[in-house]
Design brief:
Low-confidence stretches: none
Mean pLDDT: 90
Number of helices: 1
Distance between the termini: 70 Å
Structural class: alpha+beta
Number of strands: 9
Oligomer: single chain
CATH architecture of one domain: 3-Layer(bab) Sandwich
CATH class of one domain: Alpha Beta
Order of helices and strands: HEEEEEEEEE
Radius of gyration: 23 Å
Length: 186
Amino acid sequence: MAPRGFTLIELLVALALAGILLGLAVPAFRELVAARRTAADMNQIAGAIAAARAEAILRRRTVTFCPGAAGRCGPADTWHAGQLVFVDVDGDGRLDDEDTLTHALPPLRPGARVRWRAFRARSYLQFQPRGWTRWQNGSFQYCPPDGDPRGARMAIVNAQGRVRMARDGDGDGVVENASGRPLACP
């Protein structure tokens, strides 16, 4: 009976081919993982906006969506650190003792940034009992941790409180804002 097995050359060739294939797959896999994380972060923001609007309609009260954690609304540049949705009894945009916290969302992934820009320049978004914003149409721009504009996304909120995601209309890999300009991450 002849010996069975692989020669050293056959094993080295197989190992080299496996290394080459793995080297080609890892970068694509990293891009896929980054895209999924970005989608998860944007879904969290869009979901919180939808939840705030639904709470306003269901409870027939003003509801505020603000950046914040630990039961406090934070400054406008802290959306990445967590978000809060609460029934805002006095409509002042601050979580007070008489207000009811309905959702406390976790921070986005480390290094990600979110910027809210809206008519009336408030650091929060409010919904009235009919589901409309409080004259605050605007957008949430998301920038990934690496700052690459190809990973930037935008959720656009109209005055009726509806959210739509901005799209890459010209196929260059960068999403455009409502005015048609490509997103840029600072």
